[in-house]
UniProtKB/TrEMBL annotation:
Transmembrane segments: none annotated. Catalyzes the decarboxylation of orotidine 5'-monophosphate (OMP) to uridine 5'-monophosphate (UMP). One of its GO terms (biological process) is 'de novo' UMP biosynthetic process. This is Orotate phosphoribosyltransferase. The active site is at D91, K93, D96. In the N-terminal section; belongs to the purine/pyrimidine phosphoribosyltransferase family. The keyword Glycosyltransferase applies. Substrate binds at D37, K59, S145, Q200, G220, R221. Pathway: Pyrimidine metabolism; UMP biosynthesis via de novo pathway; UMP from orotate: step 2/2; Pyrimidine metabolism; UMP biosynthesis via de novo pathway; UMP from orotate: step 1/2. Its cofactor is Mg(2+). Keywords: Decarboxylase, Glycosyltransferase, Lyase, Magnesium, Multifunctional enzyme, Pyrimidine biosynthesis, Transferase. It catalyses: orotidine 5'-phosphate + diphosphate = orotate + 5-phospho-alpha-D-ribose 1-diphosphate.
Length: 252
């Protein structure tokens, strides 16, 4: 069976964040999410400015920014996201009871609820632990990319039940296929390396679109560590888009 196209998915998805992601993908001909795993506000904003036009979303780990200040970090980041038309994905990977996740989401210095368009969350806390994310989209961690991960097939099966049934969830992070009614986000993508010596395992864009029917690739070091992050973003964007177009034509 051929994979569903972004146009087909756009007709079927309900969540406003899913719709936005698919609309941006079609408008920019991009399925690239850049992971901004940098540690200063200046690097974060410089990267967002360079790669912004080529991505559907910028993924942050906001708690690794050493000089975080809401006014100096988030306000300009929000401006860049509006200027270059990309969404903000905070990769917080919440993994607690609902009440604690709610506090982590709404309080502290980061106030994720005020600026993120969508967030990642583990589903280990159960269905109701995701209720607090009702003003954003949630990407559930179904399977991880690292060697020796405990997200076995039986875990993934249970995780998928929550992912498919919770109204706040727009999709999953996984290294295996998931049902096409939700969006599949795949990190662990790099054209040059097969691993990082710290357990990360990489695949190519070709593999993730063809074999997994992924919707969005997430690329970190392949872009921000490159000598020219803008050029790197353009090549991942083109590789990803071409791999997606090819995968539409495969009737398996
Ligand atoms: N990430 C993974 N694998 C997962 C889930 N999330 O790599 O299963 C995240 C990492 C990092 C990014 O936290 O921010 O995706 C991958 O970065 P890289 O391309 O530099 O390896």
């Amino acid at each position: 069976k051929a994979r569903a196209s972004y146009e087909q998915k756009l007709k079927n998805v309900q969540h406003s964040v899913s719709k936005k992601l698919l609309e941006i993908a079609l408008a920019k001909k991009s399925n690239l999410i850049a992971s901004a795993d940098v540690t200063t506000t200046q690097e974060l904003l410089a990267l967002a400015e360079k790669v912004g036009p080529h991505i559907v979303a910028l993924k942050t780990h906001i708690d690794i920014i050493s000089d975080f200040e809401y006014e100096k970090t988030i306000i300009p980041l929000k401006e860049l996201s509006a200027k270059h038309q990309f969404l903000l994905m905070e990769d917080r990977k919440f993994a607690d009871i609902g009440n604690t996740q709610e506090l982590q989401f709404k309080s502290g210095v980061f106030k994720i609820t005020d600026w993120a368009d969508f967030v990642t969350s583990q589903v280990i806390g159960g269905f109701e632990s995701l209720d607090c994310f009702n003003n954003v989209g949630v990407v559930a961690i179904v399977g991880m990319s690292s060697k020796g991960t405990l997200t076995t097939s039986s875990y993934r099966e249970e995780a998928l039940k929550i992912t498919l049934s919770h109204p706040n969830v727009i999709g999953g992070v996984s290294q295996s296929s998931i049902p096409e009614e939700i969006l599949l986000f795949t990190p662990g993508v790099n054209l040059a390396d097969s691993g990082d010596g710290k357990g990360q395992q990489y695949n190519t864009p070709e593999y993730v679109f063809k074999t997994l029917h992924s919707d969005f690739i997430i690329v970190g070091r392949g872009i921000y560590k490159s000598n020219n992050p803008e050029e790197a973003a353009i090549s991942y964007k083109n590789e990803g888009w071409n791999a997606y177009i090819k995968s539409l034509k495969i009737i398996a």
